[in-house]
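Input chain follows. Return structure tokens only.
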Amino acid sequence: MREEFLHYIWQFQKFDKKQLQTVNGEPLEIYHTGTHNAESGPDFFAAKLKIDKQLWAGNVEIHLKSSDWYSHSHHTDTNYDNVILHVVYEHDIDIFRKDESVIPTLALKEKIPPQIQQNCLQLFEKDHDWINCEKFFPDFNDFDVENWLTRLYVERLEEKTQLIFDLLKESNNDWETVMFKLLAKNFGLNRNGNAFLNLAISIDFEVIRKLSQSQFQLEAVLLGHAGLLQEDFQDSYFKALKKEYNYLQNKFKIGEPIQTSPVFFRLRPDNFPSIRLVQLAAVFAKSTSVFNTLSKAKIKANIYKVFDVEVTEYWKTHYNFNSSHDPRQKKLTKSFIDLLIINTVIPVQYAFAKKNMNKEEHYLDLIAELDPEKNVVIRHFQELKPKLFKNAMHSQALLQLKHRYCDNNKCLKCALGVKLVRGKY
């Protein structure tokens, strides 16, 4: 038995309420179970009850056993002074207020339908290999899964908007600046994302605007401020970039390079920070109205045009400054652009619509155009339900499901887990 299960049982009143009584025989009527509290303090705020003809308004605390009140030291915590009902699975001891009056207790052990209890035990038993419900997952109704994934995807977008609104505040509501910073972060991918974001934050976007006519100067600023021009290579292009960066650093008072430079270790050459930064420079050399274009894009074809850029000639034969190779294109790949759409374009579109109270939801059509991401999490889910997960909305929602719910045993916060407990899946 898990305490979260009792939270669910109490919140949605999935127990027998006929002739309800406290453990001391007092008649109990529930008018409002209260608002669930996910932070510290009592589990439910502002409940409304009638106990033995007396109306009560206050908080409800839930435990597996009554004695947990003392083992959790609630008797010494003033946050629990306004508890009007103690809800437990099993009553083993009376608990008292500071004035030595007994806190009414409701025991649910005999009130919860046996099948619901059994379903909960099956859900949380330890014989699964990956997620709690994996042996039941193939039997979930496809419509229920689709509906829950849509909600999860919006939840994931909501999480991503927090960074966007923080950047917007720092940028005095300049959406073009926000787009530059967020693109920089996602050009760095997981390994160099934070370093690239710090780089973009530390450069005034007005500098990027003023240098937009020169891809070479943008390269110099981005590479130099990332700390990638601090060595002494005997390479003419390196020397030219370093000289240009020193000039621009002084002219625009850019400041010192970021303290933590991006890393090359264990990265494929196409993901070297040098290559990703010069590709970013190419995007903003093509246009400094990137947000204006991308915020209006409703189909991926229009977004691909924005990122259809090429690096300067030097980088067609180099991944870094100390070695060269035969000429090859260094264009942004479709899969990389799709990641930018997923992690930058759509979240910014969503945040912009939310900021302007625009209820249009074309971002759902846009994400549905993209293929699902390929990683171990998505592969596991596809094995459990073959052929259902067909686009990037599904894969993003599945990542949210795995990392926010499954990994944290929040099955009773999951629409699918709740259906499983209720036996209606």
